[in-house]
């Protein structure tokens, strides 16, 4: 028996209106994401990927269409979002950042303490709990954002290129930590990336978007067994073929966008 649907998006269109006219960022998005599924979105810059996440996060309203996020009846937030940067609160310590969402929900002190300690440990932040963000590297700040998002126990997790600004070594470490926590929690994750390697490493399924206006025009099922390593992906002929398929898609969409602009 298959998993139940967690996110359902139907006929979703988003247009931005300006004095000079309107710009359609997303056009007729239809998508179902199952409970516990890890889905990556890949597409050219400006195709509306971040706009889609912002709509699901409640930060933007769709112009047309609708979406639903299934709940299991417990009192938990619908979503948490992890941005590429600026995701931590600068005047709070690492520990206070991680517990922030829990305190805002007025949960019992013992539960806040227990859950905060657990995710500090899972993300390797135990020794840094009393530090402030200005004392942390970029990779450490992203660990704080991830720990806070999971600690808050949302229905879904939205991640907008969270590792894009990191060096390769830190990126690989955080990818493995993210997958470890995801496998334990079973959270539904929608993840934006420009990195084809990252999408193949993380995903159950990859959605390919067109250039503006953004449409989902293809999906790729990644059925390589987990746990995966980046070296396994690069050596696997099937994954290599999928890499080339995604690369060609991005090239075609960028070229199409340039022809339309010209």
Number of strands: 9
Query: What's the CATH architecture name of the largest domain?
Result: 3-Layer(aba) Sandwich
* Widest sheet, order of strands: 5-6-7-3-8-9
Label the overall shape.
globular
SSE string, helices as H and strands as E: EEEHEEHHHEHEHEEHH
CATH fold annotation of the largest domain: Rossmann fold
Class computed from helices, strands and strand pairing? alpha/beta
- Indicate the CATH class of the largest domain: Alpha Beta
Mean pLDDT: 91
**Main beta sheet:** 6 strands, mixed
Distance between the termini: 50 Å
Secondary structure: helix percent: 25-40%
- What gyration radius follows from the Cα positions, in whole Å? 19 Å
Helix tally? 8
User: How large a portion of the residues is in β-strands, by DSSP E?
Assistant: 15-25%
The CATH superfamily of the largest domain is identified as: P-loop containing nucleotide triphosphate hydrolases
Question: Uncertain spans, ≥5 residues at pLDDT below 50?
Answer: none
Number of domains: 2
In oligomeric terms, what are we looking at? single chain
Provide keyphrases for this structure:
262 residues; Rossmann fold; 2 domains; six-stranded mixed sheet; 8 helices; globular
């Amino acid at each position: 028996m298959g998993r139940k649907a967690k996110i359902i998006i139907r006929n979703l269109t988003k247009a931005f209106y300006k004095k000079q006219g309107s710009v359609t960022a997303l056009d007729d998005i239809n998508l179902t994401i199952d409970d516990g599924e890890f889905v990556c979105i890949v597409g050219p810059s400006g195709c509306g990927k971040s706009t889609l996440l912002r709509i699901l996060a409640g930060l933007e309203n769709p112009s047309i269409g609708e979406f639903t996020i299934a709940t299991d009846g417990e009192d938990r937030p619908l979503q948490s979002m992890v941005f590429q940067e600026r995701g931590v609160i600068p005047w709070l310590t690492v520990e206070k950042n991680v517990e922030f969402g829990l305190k805002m929900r007025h949960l019992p002190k013992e539960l806040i303490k227990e859950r905060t300690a657990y995710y500090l440990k899972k993300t390797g932040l135990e020794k840094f709990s009393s530090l402030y963000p200005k004392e942390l590297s970029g990779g450490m700040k992203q660990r704080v954002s991830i720990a806070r998002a999971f600690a808050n126990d949302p229905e879904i997790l939205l991640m907008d290129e969270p590792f894009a600004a990191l060096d390769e070594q830190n990126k690989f470490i955080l990818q493995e930590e993210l997958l470890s926590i995801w496998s334990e929690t079973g959270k539904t994750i929608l993840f934006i990336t420009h990195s084809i390697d990252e999408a193949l490493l993380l995903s159950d399924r990859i959605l390919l978007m067109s250039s503006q206006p953004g449409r989902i025009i293809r999906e790729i099922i990644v059925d390589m067994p987990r746990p995966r390593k980046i070296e396994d992906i690069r050596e696997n002929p099937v994954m290599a073929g999928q890499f080339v398929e995604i690369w060609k898609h991005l090239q075609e969409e960028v070229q199409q966008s340039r022809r339309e602009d010209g």
